[in-house]
Amino acid sequence: MEEKKKNTEGFIPTHGGYRKLITYQKAEIIYDGTVYFTKRFFQKYDRTIDQMVQAARSGKQNIAEASMASATSKETEIKLTNVARASLEELLIDYEDFLRTNKLPKWDKEHRLVARLRELNRIPNGNYETFKKAIEHESPEICANAMIGIIKVANYLLSQQIKQLETAFIKEGGLRERMTKARINQRNKKQ
After folding, report:
1. What pLDDT was estimated at residue 96?
2. 6 falls within a domain
3. Looking at residue 9, what is its pLDDT?
4. How many separate helices (H) and strands (E) can be counted in the chain?
5. CA end-to-end distance (rounded Å), the chain
6. Above 60 in pLDDT, residue 120?
């Protein structure tokens, strides 16, 4: 209890909690889905497997790392969140390449299954099981397009998250400002 009080009075804000972020939850689905997809649709030693899995992992891990770094560096938090978004964009292109090179259609917004994917993406606390039927469908077209849809949602949410981080930084400042403010407040208490 004393530790919590100390933290609220200090200059290091609460940090972490990334598992509650929708972006992290989506990134975890994307990672698990990519591992499944690459094992299923690529030859064992295809370098694309490593590239896609690494991009998916980078998306997920950078969200977690950004959240943990947020206490002492807003700049690092913003940069790592953007790295996550860039990694997922790279992965999106890999799925689009898969469709194109296998002469499979990429769904547009009007495709009938895109509406179902939107419904699934709105489910609170959605996880791999929420999307499993699409990700593990027998049709590679459905699998790849489902992954594309989830990645697009994650990237949109990451863009929004970056905008919020920017706004918060402008309003609240960074660690140095909080340190200075805490030090001034401590001096004023002694007077």
Report:
1. 98
2. no
3. 54
4. 8, 0
5. 28
6. yes
* Residue-level pLDDT at 140: 97
Q: Report the distance separating Cα 119 and Cα 108, nearest Å.
A: 16
Q: Is residue 3 part of a domain?
A: no
Does some domain include residue 67?
yes
Sign of CA dihedral 92, 90, 76, 60: positive
Q: Is 26 a domain residue?
A: yes
Q: From CA 70, how far away is CA 76, in angstroms rounded? A: 7
**Phi and psi for 71 in degrees, rounded to 5?**
-65, -40
Q: What percent of the chain has pLDDT over 90?
A: 64
- Quote the number of domains for the chain: 1
Rounded alpha-carbon distances, angstroms, from residue 46 to 38, 40, 120, 135 = 9, 12, 31, 20
**Confidence label for 4 from pLDDT (cuts 50, 70 and 90):** very low
For residue 160, give its domain range. Answer: 15-190
Report whether pLDDT(3) > 90. Answer: no
SS3 content of the chain, % helix, strand, coil (to 5): 80, 0, 20
